[in-house]
Amino acid sequence: PLDSTGADPALLHRVRDTLHSDLEWTNLFDFVSDSNISALDTGADFYNVNYAEWGLTGAAFLLKLGYRVVGGNLVMEVLLFDLPGQKKIFSTRYEHPIANHTRLVHTIADDVLRELTGENGLFSTRILMVCRKGKSKEVYIADSDGGQFTELTHDKSIALSPSWSPNGKTISYSQFEWRFDPQSQTKKLIPV
């Protein structure tokens, strides 16, 4: 089992809630009540499952997460079991900076969904958007669940049509400014 040294209970609660929210959003999963599994979820034998006892809960799958904190990183070991089939589906170890733990949790949710359905998840995807900020429009980015909403531009102009590059590492967008046209004595919106 992984050592919980340095673990923050509030962080672990956020990890659990984010993973639950991601998987619930797919509308493919029903979750067993915590009260029904509290006696089974002891963590005493992280790598093994008592299939007979877990089978009584009515659950089809069991997802176990172990954790430890190493420096500024959250290390999570994830095991997914098929309870009726009495076998382990996968076991993976993840490591990510604690400050960006939601990216780690979204990756875990993507992997669980891929293993169970064969389909790629969208939890790790990011959304580009334009939002009004006073009189300007700026480019923002957010996780697929709306979390980590971050302003990317601070141009105090009008940004439009943000788009990912083919490799997904950079973005492009159109930018316009209001400029005074001396000929017509009016302000005009022009591309920058």
What keyword list fits this structure?
three-stranded antiparallel beta sheet, alpha+beta, 192 residues, elongated, 22% helix
Give the SSE layout.
Blueprint: H1 9-25, H2 34-37, H3 51-55, E1 61-70, E2 73-82, E3 87-97, H4 101-117, E4 126-133, E5 136-143, E6 150-151, E7 158-164, E8 171-181, E9 186-191
Antiparallel strand pairs: 1-2, 2-3, 4-5, 5-6, 7-8, 8-9
Helix pairs in contact: 1-4
Can you describe what's shown?
It is a single chain. This protein has 192 residues and is an alpha+beta fold. It has 4 helices and 9 strands; from the N terminus they run αααβββαββββββ. Strands 1-2-3 form a 3-stranded antiparallel beta sheet, with helices on one face. Strands 4-5-6 form a 3-stranded antiparallel beta sheet, with no helix packed on it. Strands 7-8-9 form a 3-stranded antiparallel beta sheet, with no helix packed on it. Helix 1 (9-25) runs parallel beside helix 4 (101-117). The termini are far apart. The mean pLDDT is 86.
